[in-house]
């Protein structure tokens, strides 16, 4: 069933919730000094009572020195729109070319905004419904164990 989320027998209880500025500073200084290595060992070596996943996400989404914050410049926005027109919504490809953000968050936000502005008539059914030849019928998807012929 996996590891206990808050420490096992003889293990200190792992902290959850908001990060304190002291914890941020410990993690930031540790990674700058020693690098990442193995994320599961980072909290122990940095003196934190957090899990490795929590440290990894905190570093990638908030503490990285090369992380861009704030609004898009007009040049970045034009670049992302041009990529979207060429490539469509293939996120993997746009992540490699578009400006960096927390795990592609910056370009993903813009792509979502573009899709919200799209006219509803241009949207299509989800792929899983098309692939299985399923159709919508009276609030559910027909052909999936509804018990009705």
UniProtKB/TrEMBL annotation:
Sequence segments annotated as region (Disordered): 114-149
Start and end residues of each HTH myb-type domain: 11-67
Domain Myb-like, chain residue ranges per copy: 11-63
Bias (Basic residues): 122-138
Cellular component GO terms held in the UniProt record: nucleus
Compositionally biased tracts (Gly residues): 140-149
Alphabetical keyword list: DNA-binding, Nucleus, Repeat, Transcription, Transcription regulation
Pfam families referenced in this protein's UniProt entry, alphabetically: Myb_DNA-binding
Record-given protein name: Uncharacterized protein
Major subcellular site: nucleus
MF-aspect GO terms: DNA binding
Subcellular location: Nucleus
């Amino acid at each position: 069933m996996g590891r206990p989320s808050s420490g096992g027998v003889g293990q200190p209880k792992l902290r959850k919730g908001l990060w304190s500025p002291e914890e941020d500073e410990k993690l930031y200084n540790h990674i700058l000094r020693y690098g990442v290595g193995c994320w599961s060992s980072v909290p122990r070596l940095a003196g934190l009572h957090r899990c490795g996943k929590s440290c990894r996400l905190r570093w990638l989404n908030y503490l990285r020195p090369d992380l861009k914050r704030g609004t898009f410049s007009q040049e970045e926005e034009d670049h992302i729109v041009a990529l979207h027109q060429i490539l469509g919504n293939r996120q993997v490809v746009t992540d490699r070319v578009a400006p960096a953000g927390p795990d592609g968050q910056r370009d993903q936000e813009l792509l979502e905004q573009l899709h919200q502005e799209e006219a509803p008539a241009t949207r299509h059914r989800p792929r899983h419904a098309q692939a299985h030849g399923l159709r919508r019928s009276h609030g559910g998807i027909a052909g999936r164990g509804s018990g009705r012929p």
